[in-house]
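Suppose you are handed a protein chain with no further information: no name, no annotation, nothing but its sequence. What can you learn? This example shows the usual starting point.
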Amino acid sequence: MTSKDFFHKYLWDIIVVGALTLVSGGFAIYLAIPKNSNEHIANVSKDSTVILSIDLSVESATVREVAIQGAMTPMTLGVKKNAICVLESGCRTHDCIYAGWVSDSTHPIVCAYNHVSIQVGPKSLYITV
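A reasonable first move is to predict its three-dimensional structure. Written in structure tokens, the prediction is:
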């Protein structure tokens, strides 16, 4: 089989695979671009009740500590521009501390011991009255 016969026989297969590759590559690039990443609010909840809401877009670049009372022990949150974390907690496993800095809605911080969860989301989701 010559190359001319190969391309004549598989021309439409090559066109379809090439088009799918271009479309999927474009879609992957679109998803990789951050959208409105600087307009987020962090809602801190204890036992499914929001106890604190922090606008992360107005925070400074230096870390500010915020003390809250968990169900069992006190906790210290770290807040900086567009990010939040748990600095100190009295829980045994410290999974909430190991979660590190969170700046998007795909990774909530949960401290099961203290019944505290931190969810970051865009301002458009949270309506203030």
